[in-house]
User: What shape does this take?
Amino acid sequence: MAKYPEGRRRTVSPKPKGKRSGLEDPSCYLLRTLLAAKPDYVSGSVLAERLKMTRVAVWGRIDKLRSQGLEIEAARNRGYRLEAEPDYFNSHLLEAWLREKEVVCPISVFDSLDSTNSEAERQLTGGRKESFAVISSSQEKGRGRLGRKWHSPAVGNLYLSVAFRPEMPAMRLRLLTLWLGTRLCNHLRSLSGIDLMVKWPNDIVVDGRKIGGMLTEASIDPECVRTLVFGLGLNVNAARNHFPKALKETASSLKSEAGGNFRLHELTAGIIGVILKGYKECLEKLDSKVLKKSWQPLDALAGKQVIAQSGKEKVKGKAYGIDESGALLIKLRNGKIRSHFSGDVTLNTKR
Assistant: This one.
């Protein structure tokens, strides 16, 4: 459980951000009101008045939210406050946090999926037009680049896909993944205090251990991207001992590195906001020079000996940053610079 700040001995009458629309679920508005009041209490009479229901009905709705894993404290003569949230997703609380952060994005929340990217693709194929996000508490067939499996247990991690219909040139796809990688890395750095880095082209790492991975998939016809799904798997509150034996030395989580739990819903709402903003920046013809400048201080491979493999070809040399197309630059022993556009890159520990 991720805790909220301790309540004070006072009751307030907060105003959540934005007006309540007729389509907003009462449970979402109730949670928004409690979020706006934290760490203080909101009286049952205020909630009843705002929701236009009896105090008994308010109690019933709070009791239902409690049955869904939320800890909501009730204190005599003070009211209610949100005390803690579970390590799995609640759609009402996530919607409340999106509204609190003024992030506009329709969401679909699941307990379990084959993969969030696959579900986003199904919804796009079904004709869904607007941008939207798919979130799941666990995945049965989570996947990464090059067909790799992404370990996706239901232990407080984030499995997220955001879908778009961009009508953008295909050549900008590589720039989008790299740009979103830098934006997300900087966001998570400021939030966690961890010196996170980005490993070309799509991993978020700390001291060589993987914390997150990104997967961009698109339908292209013929040179234009028609549909785009940006997927993110992020180890948030998983303990290192929850990972399979093969991953314990190569993977980590925000909790393991920072030493405490993160509020999953608040974190996810912020990340969706960063993705939407970064996508818009890239769509509006992101300057590749800006990307290179942003990439440089976060480059986990910079100056290190690497092996880059694309198909049957292997290239060994020193990582030298990225070029304006987003390709990885590798300096060979003879001093020449090679551009690596796709495939796998590993550290060369046998020099």
